[in-house]
Design brief:
D-amino Acid Aminotransferase, Chain A, domain 1, D-amino Acid Aminotransferase, Chain A, domain 2, 2 domains, 9-stranded mixed sheet, 7-stranded antiparallel sheet, 8 helices, 29% helix, 27% strand, binds 4'-deoxy-4'-aminopyridoxal-5'-phosphate
Length: 289
């Protein structure tokens, strides 16, 4: 495995960062998870754009242009001889001293890892995931924007632990007001009477790249999609529910807090989106070669 760090490639055992890197000391940095299929990177421009937006929001200047980061990403995949897999693109604040002050970190570090990811087992895609509502609330816009894909994932990790302790595969995160925000690592979609609904960004949803792809597919399939305020009641009473994320792709969710959603089995609208998404990822994207 060849790992990119600041313009050079290293073997896995030599791919190291400083203990003074603020990404490690404070979670000060941003990242992207990107997927490539069949020799093409899915929605690469959208991921690079979100990476630069996240960096902008935390006042960090990435010392490369978007085009250069794009090329470094493609080159990392080439160096590893892969056609299908997952990329972790990380930008840390870089090396500083033991204080918080990011102004004492002269240069952000860029790390690119190309590998594989399996988030959920095959049976979960067939039978659906169980969800549990987390007591931990999604971080509020007033505390730290949930739009930023930062290296600070403790909010999500603690919520995920709650879900696992409850025996569920994924956790539902509500915002401070009690409205549905998203899941710990995925966006959430509900289907009721043929209409698809998903939380708005203002409610605490990340601007998921897969979420955006679902909007495009809905337009193609002629399915109405809305972004209203949603509560747990809307999840309990939905006909269908599915989750989206780069690693998860589109996965059915069939229960929340022990209550089956709809029939308690993956529904027809969810299956339609899964099929359309598989076709989309196999036929579009930035060529690696
Ligand atoms: N929400 C959160 C909190 C996430 O971490 C992610 C990505 N893993 C998503 C939603 C889904 O975003 P995307 O489709 O861009 O992967």
């Amino acid at each position: 495995m060849k790992i990119y760090i600041d313009g050079k490639f290293y073997d896995k055992e030599n791919a190291k960062v400083s203990v003074f890197d603020h990404g490690l000391l404070y979670g000060d940095g941003v990242f992207e998870g990107i997927r490539f299929y069949n020799g093409r990177v899915f929605r690469l421009d959208e991921h690079i754009r979100r990476l630069f937006d996240s960096a902008c929001a935390i006042a960090m200047t990435i010392p490369m242009t978007p085009a250069e980061v794009t090329e470094a990403t493609l080159e990392t995949i080439r160096q590893n001889g892969l056609t299908d897999g997952y990329i972790r693109l990380v930008v840390t604040r870089g090396v500083g001293d033991l204080g918080l002050n990011p102004k004492l970190c002269p240069k952000p570090s860029i790390i690119i890892i190309a590998s594989k990811i399996t988030l959920y087992s095959e049976d979960k895609y067939r039978d659906g995931l169980a969800m549990a509502t987390c007591a931990t609330r999604r971080v509020s816009h007033g505390a730290f924007s949930p739009m930023v894909k930062s290296l600070n994932y403790l909010n999500n990790i603690l919520a995920k632990l709650e879900a696992l302790h409850a025996g569920a595969g994924e956790g539902l995160l509500l915002n401070e007001q009690g409205y549905v925000a998203e899941c710990t690592g995925d966006n959430i979609f509900l289907v009721r009477d043929g209409i698809v609904r998903t939380p708005h960004f203002a409610a605490g949803a990340l601007a998921g790249v897969t979420r955006a792809a679902v909007f495009d597919l809905a337009a193609e399939l002629g399915i109405r999609i809305e972004e209203p305020l949603l509560t747990r009641y809307d999840v309990y009473t939905a006909d269908e529910c599915f989750l989206t994320g780069t690693a998860a792709e589109i996965i059915p969710a069939v229960s929340l807090d022990g209550r089956p959603i709809g029939t308690g089995k993956p529904g027809p609208v969810t299956e339609k989106f899964i099929a359309a998404f598989r076709k989309l990822v196999a036929t579009t994207g930035t060529p690696i070669a």
